[in-house]
């Protein structure tokens, strides 16, 4: 899987920004651009038609916003990882996007090399978070209702295995391949894990699990 070229769709309403992203993708042999869209609605339609491995999605767009597009993409249950690339580092946007199921959150003021590194990580099935975004999320977890301490949570052996792989940033597909189980089974385990831990998203679970010392 990791040697396969990953297809990518770019959705951003700023032509110059899109051009820069496209040039960045062209530098990486493991990524192949299959489409670009200038608004959220067109992005959702292209995602259904092209079914890319990755979607790079801006938040602040005219018409259908990035957040609305993200919700539509996740509701469609496409086998696609959605990475937010935006100027917004507000806690509200970060938390909302991740809880809607975003597989990563990057900021447009990151160095191009950092963005490319994160995209390569996402292509390998890992969570793509900029350093500043990870810090924002960790701070949010500290100040919100705390998840249950690990000692009080009765996890099965399989759930502990999956939590360790989530902590390593693995996607459901990658976890399924590593454990030789179906992706649907992984999704069921993740759902149970989140409920047991009182968390809303797998990215929150990843940040929490790292703090708890879980390692794959």
Automatic annotation (TrEMBL):
Domain HTH luxR-type residues, every copy: 148-213
The record's annotation in InterPro entries points to:
CheY-like_superfamily (IPR011006), Sig_transdc_resp-reg_C-effctor (IPR016032), Sig_transdc_resp-reg_receiver (IPR001789), Tscrpt_reg_LuxR_C (IPR000792), WalR-like (IPR039420)
Q: Which Pfam families match?
A: GerE (PF00196), Response_reg (PF00072)
Q: Which UniProt keywords apply?
A: DNA-binding, Phosphoprotein
Domain (Response regulatory): residue spans on this chain:
7-123
Modification sites for 4-aspartylphosphate: 58
SMART domains with a match to the protein in the record:
HTH_LUXR (SM00421), REC (SM00448)
NCBIfam families, per the entry: PRK10651.1 (NF007935)
Tell me what this protein is called. Two-component system response regulator NarL
Q: Which organism is it from?
A: Candidatus Competibacter phosphatis
The gene from which this protein is expressed is narL
């Amino acid at each position: 899987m990791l040697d396969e070229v990953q297809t990518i769709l770019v959705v951003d309403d700023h032509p110059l920004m899109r051009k820069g992203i496209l040039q960045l993708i062209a530098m990486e042999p493991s990524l192949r651009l299959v489409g670009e869209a200038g608004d959220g609605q067109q992005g959702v339609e292209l995602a259904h038609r092209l079914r890319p491995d990755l979607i790079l999605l801006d938040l602040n767009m005219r018409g259908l916003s990035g957040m609305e597009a993200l919700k539509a993409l996740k509701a469609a249950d496409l086998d696609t990882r959605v990475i937010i690339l935006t100027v917004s580092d507000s806690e509200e946007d970060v938390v909302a996007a991740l809880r809607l199921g975003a597989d990563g959150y990057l900021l447009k003021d990151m160095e191009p090399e950092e963005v490319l590194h994160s995209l390569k990580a996402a292509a390998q099935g890992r969570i793509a978070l900029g350093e500043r975004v990870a810090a924002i999320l960790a701070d949010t977890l500290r100040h919100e209702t705390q998840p249950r301490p690990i000692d009080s949570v009765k996890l099965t052996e399989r759930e502990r295995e999956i939590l360790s792989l989530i902590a390593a940033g693995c996607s459901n597909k990658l976890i399924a391949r590593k454990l030789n189980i179906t992706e649907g089974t992984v999704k069921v385990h993740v759902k149970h894990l989140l409920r047991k831990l009182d968390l809303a998203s797998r990215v929150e679970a990843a940040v929490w699990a790292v703090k708890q010392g879980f390692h794959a």
